[in-house]
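Pasting two entries for a bug report.
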Amino acid sequence: PQALVDWICAEQKKRQEQLQERFRTFLESEKTKTMVKITPHLTLKDVPLIEVIHRGKDRPGLLDKITSGLSASKIEILTARIGDLGKTDILLDCFMVKYTLAEGQDWNDVEQLLTEDITDMLENGVAVEDIFKRRRPLQKNPHSFPKPKTALAVPTEIHFEHTRGRPFTWMEIKTLDWLGLLHALTHILAERYNINVLSLSTIDTEGYDAQVGKQAVDTLALALWEKPLPSQLQIILKADLNWVLPHEVIDGRMLGPL
Protein backbone atom coordinates (compact mmCIF):
# COMPACT_ATOMS: atom_id res chain seq x y z
CA PRO A 1 0.00 0.00 0.00
CA GLN A 2 1.16 3.56 -0.74
CA ALA A 3 0.67 4.53 2.90
CA LEU A 4 3.24 1.90 3.96
CA VAL A 5 5.71 3.05 1.31
CA ASP A 6 5.29 6.65 2.44
CA TRP A 7 5.83 5.65 6.08
CA ILE A 8 9.02 3.73 5.25
CA CYS A 9 10.38 6.67 3.25
CA ALA A 10 9.56 9.07 6.08
CA GLU A 11 11.28 6.83 8.64
CA GLN A 12 14.38 6.53 6.44
CA LYS A 13 14.51 10.30 6.03
CA LYS A 14 14.10 10.77 9.78
CA ARG A 15 16.94 8.35 10.51
CA GLN A 16 19.24 10.06 8.00
CA GLU A 17 18.52 13.43 9.59
CA GLN A 18 19.32 12.00 13.03
CA LEU A 19 22.58 10.53 11.76
CA GLN A 20 23.56 13.77 10.06
CA GLU A 21 23.01 15.62 13.33
CA ARG A 22 24.95 12.93 15.22
CA PHE A 23 27.94 13.37 12.93
CA ARG A 24 27.52 17.11 12.32
CA THR A 25 31.06 17.93 13.51
CA PHE A 26 32.52 15.45 11.04
CA LEU A 27 30.39 16.73 8.18
CA GLU A 28 31.44 20.32 8.83
CA SER A 29 35.14 19.46 8.90
CA GLU A 30 36.31 18.68 5.37
CA LYS A 31 39.84 17.91 6.61
CA THR A 32 38.70 14.76 8.44
CA LYS A 33 38.14 11.86 6.05
CA THR A 34 37.77 8.93 8.46
CA MET A 35 36.35 8.71 11.96
CA VAL A 36 35.57 5.86 14.34
CA LYS A 37 32.98 6.26 17.10
CA ILE A 38 32.33 3.66 19.80
CA THR A 39 29.17 3.71 21.90
CA PRO A 40 29.18 1.25 24.84
CA HIS A 41 26.07 -0.86 25.40
CA LEU A 42 23.91 0.22 28.34
CA THR A 43 23.97 -3.23 29.98
CA LEU A 44 26.36 -5.49 28.02
CA LYS A 45 29.82 -4.07 28.69
CA ASP A 46 31.55 -6.25 26.08
CA VAL A 47 29.08 -5.52 23.22
CA PRO A 48 29.54 -1.93 22.01
CA LEU A 49 28.43 -0.28 18.78
CA ILE A 50 31.27 0.74 16.47
CA GLU A 51 30.49 3.27 13.74
CA VAL A 52 32.98 4.01 10.99
CA ILE A 53 32.31 7.07 8.85
CA HIS A 54 34.39 7.79 5.76
CA ARG A 55 34.36 10.66 3.29
CA GLY A 56 34.89 9.25 -0.21
CA LYS A 57 33.35 7.35 -3.06
CA ASP A 58 32.29 3.77 -2.37
CA ARG A 59 34.67 1.31 -4.02
CA PRO A 60 35.89 -2.31 -3.93
CA GLY A 61 38.07 -2.96 -0.90
CA LEU A 62 36.68 -0.22 1.34
CA LEU A 63 34.66 -2.55 3.55
CA ASP A 64 37.54 -5.04 3.47
CA LYS A 65 39.91 -2.50 5.01
CA ILE A 66 37.41 -1.50 7.69
CA THR A 67 36.78 -5.12 8.71
CA SER A 68 40.54 -5.72 8.59
CA GLY A 69 41.00 -3.06 11.24
CA LEU A 70 38.45 -4.74 13.50
CA SER A 71 39.71 -8.28 12.93
CA ALA A 72 43.38 -7.38 13.40
CA SER A 73 42.50 -6.18 16.92
CA LYS A 74 40.50 -9.39 17.52
CA ILE A 75 37.16 -7.59 17.61
CA GLU A 76 34.35 -10.01 16.75
CA ILE A 77 31.61 -8.65 14.50
CA LEU A 78 28.13 -9.80 15.57
CA THR A 79 25.97 -7.71 13.23
CA ALA A 80 26.68 -5.06 10.63
CA ARG A 81 24.77 -2.55 8.54
CA ILE A 82 26.53 -1.08 5.54
CA GLY A 83 25.16 2.31 4.51
CA ASP A 84 25.66 6.04 4.11
CA LEU A 85 24.39 9.37 5.44
CA GLY A 86 22.07 9.95 2.53
CA LYS A 87 25.03 11.19 0.50
CA THR A 88 26.91 8.80 -1.77
CA ASP A 89 30.27 10.29 -0.75
CA ILE A 90 29.71 10.00 3.03
CA LEU A 91 29.73 6.32 3.96
CA LEU A 92 28.66 4.95 7.35
CA ASP A 93 29.17 1.34 8.43
CA CYS A 94 27.74 0.24 11.79
CA PHE A 95 28.98 -2.83 13.66
CA MET A 96 27.67 -4.43 16.83
CA VAL A 97 30.72 -6.26 18.13
CA LYS A 98 32.05 -8.35 20.98
CA TYR A 99 35.31 -7.28 22.56
CA THR A 100 36.74 -7.46 26.07
CA LEU A 101 38.85 -4.48 27.08
CA ALA A 102 42.39 -5.26 28.21
CA GLU A 103 43.50 -4.25 31.69
CA GLY A 104 43.97 -0.48 31.76
CA GLN A 105 42.32 -0.02 28.37
CA ASP A 106 39.13 1.98 27.76
CA TRP A 107 36.91 2.55 24.71
CA ASN A 108 38.68 5.81 23.87
CA ASP A 109 41.89 3.81 23.48
CA VAL A 110 40.13 1.40 21.12
CA GLU A 111 38.65 4.29 19.12
CA GLN A 112 42.10 5.81 18.67
CA LEU A 113 43.66 2.48 17.70
CA LEU A 114 40.98 1.70 15.11
CA THR A 115 41.05 5.22 13.69
CA GLU A 116 44.81 4.94 13.20
CA ASP A 117 44.64 1.53 11.51
CA ILE A 118 41.64 2.20 9.27
CA THR A 119 42.94 5.65 8.27
CA ASP A 120 46.33 4.14 7.38
CA MET A 121 44.68 1.61 5.08
CA LEU A 122 42.11 3.92 3.48
CA GLU A 123 44.17 7.08 3.15
CA ASN A 124 47.87 6.21 3.48
CA GLY A 125 48.12 3.02 1.44
CA VAL A 126 49.20 0.76 4.31
CA ALA A 127 48.65 -2.91 3.40
CA VAL A 128 46.16 -5.08 5.28
CA GLU A 129 48.93 -7.56 6.16
CA ASP A 130 50.96 -4.79 7.81
CA ILE A 131 48.04 -3.87 10.08
CA PHE A 132 47.78 -7.49 11.24
CA LYS A 133 51.53 -7.52 11.96
CA ARG A 134 51.18 -4.24 13.87
CA ARG A 135 48.41 -5.54 16.14
CA ARG A 136 49.59 -9.16 16.47
CA PRO A 137 53.38 -8.82 16.76
CA LEU A 138 53.88 -12.02 18.76
CA GLN A 139 51.75 -14.24 16.51
CA LYS A 140 53.74 -16.46 14.14
CA ASN A 141 51.20 -15.94 11.35
CA PRO A 142 49.38 -12.69 12.24
CA HIS A 143 46.97 -12.80 9.28
CA SER A 144 45.27 -16.08 10.18
CA PHE A 145 42.09 -17.17 11.93
CA PRO A 146 41.61 -20.45 13.82
CA LYS A 147 37.94 -21.41 13.67
CA PRO A 148 36.06 -22.64 16.76
CA LYS A 149 35.77 -26.42 17.05
CA THR A 150 32.24 -27.80 16.98
CA ALA A 151 30.91 -31.31 17.55
CA LEU A 152 28.89 -31.17 14.33
CA ALA A 153 30.01 -29.77 11.01
CA VAL A 154 28.28 -26.57 9.95
CA PRO A 155 27.62 -26.62 6.20
CA THR A 156 28.14 -23.54 4.08
CA GLU A 157 25.17 -22.51 1.93
CA ILE A 158 25.57 -19.89 -0.78
CA HIS A 159 22.79 -18.51 -2.96
CA PHE A 160 22.73 -15.77 -5.59
CA GLU A 161 19.73 -13.79 -6.76
CA HIS A 162 19.31 -10.91 -9.19
CA THR A 163 16.32 -8.60 -9.37
CA ARG A 164 15.75 -7.35 -12.89
CA GLY A 165 16.59 -3.69 -13.25
CA ARG A 166 18.90 -3.60 -10.22
CA PRO A 167 22.65 -2.99 -10.84
CA PHE A 168 23.79 -5.64 -8.36
CA THR A 169 23.45 -9.29 -7.35
CA TRP A 170 22.36 -10.51 -3.92
CA MET A 171 24.59 -13.15 -2.31
CA GLU A 172 23.29 -14.86 0.81
CA ILE A 173 25.79 -16.99 2.67
CA LYS A 174 25.12 -19.11 5.75
CA THR A 175 28.12 -20.63 7.47
CA LEU A 176 29.82 -21.13 10.83
CA ASP A 177 30.53 -17.79 12.47
CA TRP A 178 34.07 -17.03 13.62
CA LEU A 179 36.19 -13.99 14.39
CA GLY A 180 37.38 -12.68 11.04
CA LEU A 181 34.65 -14.18 8.83
CA LEU A 182 33.40 -10.88 7.37
CA HIS A 183 36.97 -9.77 6.75
CA ALA A 184 37.70 -13.06 4.95
CA LEU A 185 34.64 -12.66 2.72
CA THR A 186 35.27 -9.02 1.86
CA HIS A 187 39.00 -9.63 1.30
CA ILE A 188 38.31 -12.37 -1.25
CA LEU A 189 35.70 -10.24 -2.99
CA ALA A 190 37.99 -7.21 -3.24
CA GLU A 191 41.45 -8.69 -3.72
CA ARG A 192 40.55 -11.61 -5.96
CA TYR A 193 37.58 -10.36 -7.98
CA ASN A 194 37.42 -6.55 -7.56
CA ILE A 195 33.79 -6.93 -6.45
CA ASN A 196 32.20 -4.08 -4.51
CA VAL A 197 29.96 -4.66 -1.47
CA LEU A 198 27.15 -2.10 -1.66
CA SER A 199 25.40 -0.19 1.11
CA LEU A 200 22.34 -2.46 1.11
CA SER A 201 24.27 -5.29 2.77
CA THR A 202 23.53 -6.75 6.22
CA ILE A 203 25.37 -9.21 8.44
CA ASP A 204 23.80 -11.11 11.33
CA THR A 205 24.82 -13.84 13.74
CA GLU A 206 22.18 -16.36 14.77
CA GLY A 207 21.89 -18.11 18.14
CA TYR A 208 24.64 -20.20 19.71
CA ASP A 209 24.42 -23.97 20.02
CA ALA A 210 27.06 -25.96 21.95
CA GLN A 211 27.30 -28.57 19.21
CA VAL A 212 27.16 -26.44 16.08
CA GLY A 213 28.42 -23.06 17.32
CA LYS A 214 27.06 -19.82 15.91
CA GLN A 215 25.78 -19.45 12.37
CA ALA A 216 26.44 -16.29 10.38
CA VAL A 217 23.86 -15.14 7.87
CA ASP A 218 25.38 -12.55 5.55
CA THR A 219 23.29 -10.91 2.83
CA LEU A 220 25.57 -8.93 0.54
CA ALA A 221 24.68 -6.72 -2.42
CA LEU A 222 27.53 -7.24 -4.88
CA ALA A 223 28.45 -5.35 -8.02
CA LEU A 224 31.24 -5.68 -10.58
CA TRP A 225 31.94 -2.38 -12.34
CA GLU A 226 28.51 -1.14 -11.17
CA LYS A 227 26.77 -4.11 -12.80
CA PRO A 228 25.36 -7.45 -11.54
CA LEU A 229 27.74 -10.39 -11.29
CA PRO A 230 27.87 -12.50 -14.48
CA SER A 231 26.57 -16.06 -14.05
CA GLN A 232 30.00 -17.58 -14.68
CA LEU A 233 31.57 -15.40 -11.99
CA GLN A 234 28.87 -16.50 -9.52
CA ILE A 235 29.82 -20.13 -10.17
CA ILE A 236 33.54 -19.43 -9.69
CA LEU A 237 32.99 -17.35 -6.54
CA LYS A 238 30.76 -20.00 -4.98
CA ALA A 239 33.32 -22.73 -5.66
CA ASP A 240 36.08 -20.54 -4.23
CA LEU A 241 34.21 -19.83 -0.99
CA ASN A 242 33.20 -23.48 -0.63
CA TRP A 243 36.89 -24.37 -0.80
CA VAL A 244 38.17 -21.70 1.62
CA LEU A 245 35.56 -21.70 4.39
CA PRO A 246 35.70 -25.36 5.55
CA HIS A 247 39.38 -25.10 6.55
CA GLU A 248 40.02 -25.30 10.30
CA VAL A 249 42.46 -22.38 10.08
CA ILE A 250 41.92 -19.62 7.55
CA ASP A 251 45.26 -18.25 6.36
CA GLY A 252 45.37 -14.77 4.85
CA ARG A 253 47.21 -16.22 1.84
CA MET A 254 44.01 -18.13 0.96
CA LEU A 255 42.15 -14.84 0.57
CA GLY A 256 44.37 -12.85 -1.79
CA PRO A 257 44.81 -12.87 -5.56
CA LEU A 258 45.09 -16.28 -7.22
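Entry 2 (this is the one that rendered wrong in the viewer):
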Amino acid sequence: KMHSTEIGNEVADVPYQIISSLIEYEKEGCSIQAGLSAYESSLQPIGTFNWKWNNYYLSAKRNYEVVFTQTEDYHTKVNPFSTDALALGYKNKKIESEVELFHIQQEEKSSLGLKGKANINLSWLDVRHTTGIYNLGSDNSSPQPVDVFSHTSLIFSPNVWHWKKARFQPFIGLESTFVQHSGKMGIDPIKPEIIISMETVDPYSSFLVNMEYGLLVNQFKVSYRWVKFNMFGNTTNNSINPGSYSILPIHHLEIIWQFWN
Protein backbone atom coordinates (compact mmCIF):
# COMPACT_ATOMS: atom_id res chain seq x y z
CA LYS A 1 0.00 0.00 0.00
CA MET A 2 1.22 3.50 -0.79
CA HIS A 3 0.23 6.99 0.38
CA SER A 4 1.03 10.01 -1.80
CA THR A 5 1.12 13.60 -0.55
CA GLU A 6 1.68 16.71 -2.66
CA ILE A 7 3.67 19.42 -0.87
CA GLY A 8 4.25 22.49 -2.99
CA ASN A 9 5.20 21.18 -6.42
CA GLU A 10 6.60 17.87 -5.16
CA VAL A 11 4.83 14.55 -4.59
CA ALA A 12 6.07 12.42 -1.70
CA ASP A 13 5.27 8.69 -1.75
CA VAL A 14 5.26 6.70 1.48
CA PRO A 15 4.94 2.94 0.86
CA TYR A 16 4.58 0.07 3.29
CA GLN A 17 4.21 -3.67 2.97
CA ILE A 18 2.95 -6.01 5.66
CA ILE A 19 3.04 -9.78 5.20
CA SER A 20 0.81 -12.13 7.19
CA SER A 21 0.69 -15.91 7.19
CA LEU A 22 -1.81 -18.14 9.05
CA ILE A 23 -2.56 -21.81 9.52
CA GLU A 24 -6.07 -22.96 10.49
CA TYR A 25 -7.55 -25.89 12.38
CA GLU A 26 -11.32 -26.45 12.54
CA LYS A 27 -13.44 -29.12 14.21
CA GLU A 28 -16.98 -29.35 15.66
CA GLY A 29 -17.84 -25.70 16.18
CA CYS A 30 -14.30 -24.69 17.09
CA SER A 31 -11.69 -23.07 14.86
CA ILE A 32 -8.17 -21.85 15.55
CA GLN A 33 -5.91 -19.70 13.37
CA ALA A 34 -2.29 -18.97 14.27
CA GLY A 35 0.46 -17.20 12.39
CA LEU A 36 2.81 -14.23 12.09
CA SER A 37 2.76 -10.72 10.60
CA ALA A 38 5.95 -9.08 9.39
CA TYR A 39 6.54 -5.37 8.88
CA GLU A 40 10.10 -4.13 8.25
CA SER A 41 12.15 -5.69 11.06
CA SER A 42 9.16 -6.36 13.33
CA LEU A 43 7.63 -9.83 13.61
CA GLN A 44 4.35 -10.10 15.54
CA PRO A 45 2.21 -13.16 16.44
CA ILE A 46 -1.41 -13.04 15.24
CA GLY A 47 -4.32 -15.43 15.45
CA THR A 48 -7.99 -16.07 16.15
CA PHE A 49 -10.00 -18.50 18.25
CA ASN A 50 -13.71 -19.12 17.63
CA TRP A 51 -16.00 -21.40 19.61
CA LYS A 52 -19.74 -21.85 19.02
CA TRP A 53 -22.35 -23.70 21.07
CA ASN A 54 -25.97 -23.60 19.86
CA ASN A 55 -26.68 -19.87 19.41
CA TYR A 56 -23.82 -18.67 21.63
CA TYR A 57 -20.27 -17.95 20.51
CA LEU A 58 -16.95 -16.87 21.98
CA SER A 59 -14.05 -15.44 20.02
CA ALA A 60 -10.57 -14.09 20.71
CA LYS A 61 -8.28 -12.50 18.17
CA ARG A 62 -5.02 -10.65 17.75
CA ASN A 63 -4.32 -8.50 14.68
CA TYR A 64 -1.30 -6.51 13.56
CA GLU A 65 -1.95 -3.62 11.16
CA VAL A 66 -0.43 -0.43 9.81
CA VAL A 67 -2.17 2.93 9.23
CA PHE A 68 -1.14 6.25 7.71
CA THR A 69 -1.44 9.51 9.67
CA GLN A 70 -0.64 13.01 8.52
CA THR A 71 1.52 15.39 10.58
CA GLU A 72 1.07 19.14 10.97
CA ASP A 73 3.73 19.81 8.31
CA TYR A 74 1.77 17.71 5.76
CA HIS A 75 4.15 14.74 5.90
CA THR A 76 2.92 11.17 6.24
CA LYS A 77 3.76 8.96 9.19
CA VAL A 78 3.41 5.16 9.19
CA ASN A 79 2.01 3.79 12.47
CA PRO A 80 2.00 0.02 13.12
CA PHE A 81 -0.25 -1.21 15.93
CA SER A 82 -1.67 -4.44 17.34
CA THR A 83 -5.21 -5.15 18.56
CA ASP A 84 -6.24 -7.83 21.07
CA ALA A 85 -9.97 -8.50 21.40
CA LEU A 86 -12.27 -10.86 23.29
CA ALA A 87 -15.94 -11.13 22.22
CA LEU A 88 -18.98 -12.96 23.58
CA GLY A 89 -22.22 -13.08 21.63
CA TYR A 90 -25.59 -14.63 20.89
CA LYS A 91 -27.27 -14.95 17.50
CA ASN A 92 -30.48 -16.41 16.08
CA LYS A 93 -32.85 -15.43 13.28
CA LYS A 94 -34.50 -12.60 15.23
CA ILE A 95 -32.03 -11.46 17.89
CA GLU A 96 -28.30 -10.79 17.77
CA SER A 97 -26.07 -9.35 20.50
CA GLU A 98 -22.35 -9.08 21.14
CA VAL A 99 -19.96 -7.56 23.68
CA GLU A 100 -16.29 -7.07 22.81
CA LEU A 101 -13.39 -5.95 25.01
CA PHE A 102 -10.38 -4.70 23.03
CA HIS A 103 -6.87 -3.42 23.72
CA ILE A 104 -4.79 -1.42 21.22
CA GLN A 105 -1.00 -1.27 21.51
CA GLN A 106 0.97 1.27 19.48
CA GLU A 107 4.69 1.41 20.22
CA GLU A 108 4.82 2.29 23.95
CA LYS A 109 1.26 3.62 24.06
CA SER A 110 -1.93 1.65 24.67
CA SER A 111 -5.68 2.13 25.07
CA LEU A 112 -8.53 -0.04 26.33
CA GLY A 113 -12.14 -0.03 25.15
CA LEU A 114 -15.45 -1.86 25.04
CA LYS A 115 -17.88 -2.30 22.14
CA GLY A 116 -21.35 -3.76 22.02
CA LYS A 117 -24.15 -4.31 19.55
CA ALA A 118 -27.75 -5.52 19.69
CA ASN A 119 -30.09 -6.18 16.77
CA ILE A 120 -33.77 -7.17 16.71
CA ASN A 121 -35.24 -8.26 13.39
CA LEU A 122 -39.00 -8.94 13.40
CA SER A 123 -41.56 -8.83 10.59
CA TRP A 124 -42.85 -5.46 11.86
CA LEU A 125 -39.86 -4.03 13.74
CA ASP A 126 -36.15 -3.67 12.99
CA VAL A 127 -33.85 -2.23 15.67
CA ARG A 128 -30.07 -1.96 15.38
CA HIS A 129 -27.88 -0.50 18.12
CA THR A 130 -24.11 -0.08 18.42
CA THR A 131 -22.17 1.40 21.35
CA GLY A 132 -18.47 1.98 21.84
CA ILE A 133 -16.73 3.06 25.05
CA TYR A 134 -13.12 4.18 24.75
CA ASN A 135 -10.39 5.43 27.09
CA LEU A 136 -11.26 2.90 29.79
CA GLY A 137 -8.97 2.73 32.81
CA SER A 138 -6.66 5.31 34.33
CA ASP A 139 -3.47 4.01 32.68
CA ASN A 140 -4.41 4.86 29.09
CA SER A 141 -1.24 6.28 27.52
CA SER A 142 -2.87 6.81 24.11
CA PRO A 143 -6.21 8.62 24.63
CA GLN A 144 -8.75 8.52 21.83
CA PRO A 145 -10.66 11.62 20.65
CA VAL A 146 -14.00 9.98 21.57
CA ASP A 147 -15.04 8.64 24.99
CA VAL A 148 -18.45 7.23 24.01
CA PHE A 149 -20.14 6.55 20.67
CA SER A 150 -23.70 5.31 20.25
CA HIS A 151 -25.79 4.73 17.12
CA THR A 152 -29.37 3.46 17.05
CA SER A 153 -31.70 2.93 14.09
CA LEU A 154 -35.34 1.82 14.25
CA ILE A 155 -37.90 1.02 11.56
CA PHE A 156 -41.49 0.26 12.55
CA SER A 157 -43.77 -1.11 9.82
CA PRO A 158 -47.14 -2.65 10.84
CA ASN A 159 -47.64 -6.17 9.58
CA VAL A 160 -51.24 -6.61 10.79
CA TRP A 161 -54.79 -6.21 9.49
CA HIS A 162 -54.98 -5.48 5.76
CA TRP A 163 -51.30 -4.44 5.68
CA LYS A 164 -50.30 -8.10 6.16
CA LYS A 165 -51.35 -9.02 2.61
CA ALA A 166 -50.97 -5.64 0.96
CA ARG A 167 -48.32 -5.00 -1.68
CA PHE A 168 -46.91 -2.11 0.35
CA GLN A 169 -46.65 -1.11 4.00
CA PRO A 170 -46.30 2.28 5.69
CA PHE A 171 -43.31 2.74 7.98
CA ILE A 172 -41.75 5.22 10.35
CA GLY A 173 -38.03 5.30 11.07
CA LEU A 174 -35.78 6.95 13.65
CA GLU A 175 -32.00 7.21 13.74
CA SER A 176 -29.89 8.71 16.53
CA THR A 177 -26.15 9.28 16.85
CA PHE A 178 -24.52 10.34 20.10
CA VAL A 179 -20.82 11.18 20.46
CA GLN A 180 -19.11 12.12 23.74
CA HIS A 181 -15.78 13.76 22.92
CA SER A 182 -12.99 13.27 25.42
CA GLY A 183 -11.54 16.78 25.24
CA LYS A 184 -8.06 15.23 25.24
CA MET A 185 -7.91 15.21 21.45
CA GLY A 186 -9.87 17.36 19.01
CA ILE A 187 -11.19 16.86 15.49
CA ASP A 188 -10.40 19.77 13.19
CA PRO A 189 -10.85 19.08 9.44
CA ILE A 190 -9.16 22.39 8.64
CA LYS A 191 -5.84 21.22 10.12
CA PRO A 192 -3.63 18.90 8.04
CA GLU A 193 -3.41 16.30 10.83
CA ILE A 194 -7.23 16.46 11.44
CA ILE A 195 -6.97 14.87 14.93
CA ILE A 196 -4.87 17.05 17.20
CA SER A 197 -3.90 16.89 20.88
CA MET A 198 -5.70 19.33 23.16
CA GLU A 199 -5.11 20.38 26.76
CA THR A 200 -7.62 23.19 27.29
CA VAL A 201 -10.80 21.83 25.69
CA ASP A 202 -13.50 20.56 28.05
CA PRO A 203 -15.31 17.31 27.17
CA TYR A 204 -18.33 17.98 24.98
CA SER A 205 -21.02 15.93 23.30
CA SER A 206 -22.88 15.87 20.01
CA PHE A 207 -26.38 14.44 19.50
CA LEU A 208 -28.14 14.00 16.15
CA VAL A 209 -31.62 12.57 15.52
CA ASN A 210 -33.03 11.82 12.06
CA MET A 211 -36.61 10.81 11.25
CA GLU A 212 -38.46 9.55 8.18
CA TYR A 213 -41.80 8.08 7.20
CA GLY A 214 -43.08 6.60 3.95
CA LEU A 215 -43.97 3.39 2.14
CA LEU A 216 -42.11 0.08 1.79
CA VAL A 217 -42.53 -2.08 -1.29
CA ASN A 218 -40.48 -5.10 -2.34
CA GLN A 219 -37.04 -3.67 -3.30
CA PHE A 220 -38.44 -0.13 -3.22
CA LYS A 221 -38.75 2.62 -0.60
CA VAL A 222 -40.14 6.15 -0.86
CA SER A 223 -40.03 8.40 2.19
CA TYR A 224 -39.83 11.95 3.47
CA ARG A 225 -36.75 12.42 5.65
CA TRP A 226 -35.76 14.95 8.30
CA VAL A 227 -32.05 15.28 9.00
CA LYS A 228 -31.47 16.71 12.49
CA PHE A 229 -34.99 16.13 13.75
CA ASN A 230 -34.22 17.27 17.28
CA MET A 231 -34.52 20.35 19.48
CA PHE A 232 -31.09 20.47 21.09
CA GLY A 233 -29.88 23.75 19.64
CA ASN A 234 -26.43 23.73 18.04
CA THR A 235 -25.19 20.62 19.84
CA THR A 236 -24.59 18.74 16.58
CA ASN A 237 -21.03 19.81 15.98
CA ASN A 238 -18.06 17.43 15.85
CA SER A 239 -15.31 19.97 15.20
CA ILE A 240 -13.33 22.11 17.63
CA ASN A 241 -12.57 24.67 14.91
CA PRO A 242 -14.26 27.97 15.89
CA GLY A 243 -15.04 28.65 12.23
CA SER A 244 -17.10 25.47 11.80
CA TYR A 245 -20.88 25.42 11.88
CA SER A 246 -23.36 23.05 13.45
CA ILE A 247 -25.21 20.61 11.17
CA LEU A 248 -28.30 22.37 9.82
CA PRO A 249 -31.75 20.73 9.59
CA ILE A 250 -32.50 19.28 6.14
CA HIS A 251 -35.84 17.99 4.79
CA HIS A 252 -35.94 16.00 1.57
CA LEU A 253 -37.79 13.31 -0.37
CA GLU A 254 -35.83 10.05 -0.56
CA ILE A 255 -36.40 7.23 -3.05
CA ILE A 256 -34.39 4.00 -2.91
CA TRP A 257 -34.76 1.37 -5.63
CA GLN A 258 -32.75 -1.86 -5.31
CA PHE A 259 -32.04 -3.96 -8.41
CA TRP A 260 -31.41 -7.68 -8.49
CA ASN A 261 -28.01 -8.86 -9.72
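Dev reply: Rendering is fixed now. As a check, the viewer should reflect this: DSSP finds no helices and 17 strands in the chain.
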